[in-house]
């Protein structure tokens, strides 16, 4: 069972277009018109995750902007661990207007940058999903 899991990890059974539709980081205009959303609820459904390989010669820089919540750091660390990503350096901003900014200098377990566009996309999508729909921490 473990070898099947290892072989499938990092692979998605759904297309990127379907994943984007399912886990979009903002409400579509159609969703906003279908239900009345408070400004706070619309604000909560926003997260940005960017990957930059030009800022460091040996690390991929992961830049995140999202609503701060209990367990945020845990959710991010667990997701990175699941993708075999190690953090070399990090900067976490103070909370500003309910949002938190994180800049993480990361590498794969083998010490290389993340250069595969599909792997970057999957990591960003998963991080967004986890930040927008976190496990409830009491």
From TrEMBL:
The keyword Chloroplast does not apply. It comes from Opuntia streptacantha. InterPro entries: ACR1-12. This is ACT domain-containing protein ACR. The keyword Protein biosynthesis does not apply. GO terms for molecular function: amino acid binding; nucleotidyltransferase activity. Keywords: Nucleotidyltransferase, Repeat, Transferase. Binds amino acids. Pfam families: ACT_ACR9_3rd.
